[in-house]
């Protein structure tokens, strides 16, 4: 596909060769692109339109919701609920799966989304994003229930994110590599700017919230200690660290210039009964699909993330993803205990 082609055209072209394609999937990705354009416009306007700040409520995971968490969630439902492309929707910001509008037609796809990832950054004008994961509704299921969404990441038919940074970028995979599109805000189209993205194999950069280090397990401490030891240590090279606190921005940096991102299990979370910070269905699975499609790897430290059989839509997992060699090394440290 040539650089500069529109996202709409790219989606139509990728569907052209598929036997039995009805245009429903094309329509669904278009709906998502529309939602992301709307969110991009809201994020751009920010304080001018009074969308910043806390909403004064909590989501199902006990996190304080920002006004924009709620508004962007509604933008997604509005864009996807009525067009007959989605069979069901689930969001990080909603306790239960979304009740679909009664009078609207239904499609065959399940869409899971984090409408505003990194929302703690929104009030300080730092990059945020949207993440989505697309599954097929089980054969013959017209009105999907929660259990129909509980499919492993390997079943995803597409996944992507939209990064609202200095430019707005849509990055996605349908299982045929990773493409990057940049929003031309003058005429409102995403244009292909990078084709078949590959993560550089070698890296000297890691991303982790270091303030949690005293709570980490041994294997994670070992890996980071060795990075910090630099040239004189066992890795024989100096490492650089970055932490944006928006997973979308972190993954985008890794796709662009390499590195490894970790949100490992820690004793603080364990004491609260959660297995990690990041959500399997809205964050870990879609990002793992993208990372693997770009030649990287993704694990909890002990198992491939996309192989996990989900137990709940809001399940959390430890996440280690990025350059394959680093992820393999971290996995080895976990196996060695
Ligand atoms: P969300 O804003 O959707 O709740 O996700 C925030 C996530 C992720 O984007 C980021 O990597 C991490 O939480 C930040 O965690 P810290 O607050 O520990 O830095
Ligand atoms: Mn998030
Ligand atoms: Mn979120």
Features:
single chain; alpha+beta; D-Maltodextrin-Binding Protein, domain 2; seven-stranded mixed beta sheet; binds 2,5-anhydro-1,6-di-O-phosphono-D-glucitol; binds manganese (II) ion
For this structure, the CATH topology of the largest domain is Fructose-1,6-Bisphosphatase, Chain A, domain 1
The major pleated sheet works out as:
7 strands, mixed
Q: In percent, how much strand structure appears in the residues?
A: 15-25%
Tally of strands: 16
Total DSSP helices: 9
Order of helices and strands: HHEEHEEEHEEEEEHEHEHEHEEEH
Query: What percent of the residues sit in helical stretches (DSSP H or I)?
Result: 25-40%
Q: What count of domains describes the coordinates? A: 2
Shape: globular
The small-molecule ligands in this entry are: 2,5-anhydro-1,6-di-O-phosphono-D-glucitol, manganese (II) ion
Mean pLDDT rating: 95
What is the gyration radius calculated from CA atoms? 19 Å
CATH class of the largest domain equals Alpha Beta
Low-confidence stretches: none
Through-space gap between termini: 45 Å
What is the annotated CATH architecture of the largest domain? 2-Layer Sandwich
- The CATH homology group name of the largest domain: Fructose-1,6-Bisphosphatase, subunit A, domain 1
Class from secondary-structure proportions: alpha+beta
Widest sheet: strand ordering: 3-4-5-6-7-8-9
